[in-house]
Design goal:
There is one protein chain. With about 160 residues, this protein is α/β, with parallel strands linked by helices. It has a single domain (about 5-10, about 45-150), classed as Rossmann fold, CATH 3.40.50.620. It contains six helices and six strands. It has helices at about 20-25, 30-40, 50-65, 85-90, 110-125, 145-150, and strands at about 5-10, 10-15, 45, 70-80, 95-100, 130. Strands 5-4-1-6 form a four-stranded parallel beta sheet, sandwiched between helices. Strands 2-3 form a two-stranded antiparallel sheet. Helix 5 packs across helix 6. The longest helix is centred in the middle third of the chain and has 19 residues, at about 50-65.
Length: about 160
C-alpha cells in the first residue's frame, strides 16, 4: 500500500478559562472586535477537540510504522500568526507539513467559509484522510467537519476516538 497522507485541521483559541469576569465586562456586544479586545492579552491554546485529533493522527502514524507502513502527517490551521508556535511544535513532533491559512477575517461565526478553506487546503496537501475536532470555539455549531467532508466529496465519520 502507498503512503497514507493524513491532514489534521486545528484551531488556536484564547484560553477562556484564564479570563476574569471583568475582562468580559469590558467587551461590549457580540462583535468580533469586542471579543478580540476581551481576549487580547490571554494566552492562546490548542482547541481541546483538535488537540485530540492531532494526537490521534500521531498514534495512527506510530501504529502504522510498527506494521511497516508509511504515513505522512500534515497540519493546517485557519488562523493568523498566533498559530505559528503551534505549527513549529507540530513539526517537531513529526508533522512533515504544517501551515496556516490566514483568512484575513474573524471566522468564528462563519463555519461554511472555514470549512471551504480547510477543504481546499486538505486537497492541496493531497490528504487521503482529513481529521478535525468535533467543535472549535465561540459560535461553533459543530458543522465544519461535515461541511468540509461535503466540499471534498468524502464521507464524514463523527465522534471517532480510536482507529
Amino acid at each position: 500500500m502507498d503512503q497514507l497522507r493524513i491532514v489534521v485541521g486545528f484551531k488556536v483559541t484564547p484560553d477562556y478559562e484564564a479570563l476574569r469576569p471583568a475582562d468580559w465586562a469590558r467587551a461590549t456586544g457580540d462583535a468580533p472586535e469586542a471579543r478580540a479586545q476581551a481576549t487580547r492579552y490571554v494566552r492562546r491554546v490548542l482547541n481541546l477537540f483538535d488537540e485530540a485529533a492531532l494526537e490521534l493522527a500521531l498514534r495512527l502514524r506510530d501504529a502504522r510504522a510498527d506494521a511497516g507502513l508509511e504515513t505522512s502527517l500534515a497540519a493546517v490551521s485557519v488562523a493568523g500568526r498566533e498559530a505559528d508556535p503551534f505549527l513549529r511544535t507540530l513539526q517537531a513532533l513529526g508533522y512533515t507539513r504544517a501551515q496556516r491559512v490566514d483568512a484575513g477575517a474573524d471566522l468564528d461565526f462563519a463555519p461554511a467559509a472555514t470549512a471551504a478553506l480547510v477543504a481546499a487546503c486538505a486537497e492541496r496537501l493531497g490528504g487521503d484522510v482529513l481529521l478535525l475536532g468535533c467543535r472549535s470555539g465561540p459560535g461553533d455549531g459543530g458543522v465544519v467537519p461535515f461541511q468540509a467532508a461535503e466540499a471534498l466529496g468524502r464521507p464524514c465519520l463523527s465522534r471517532v476516538t480510536e482507529v
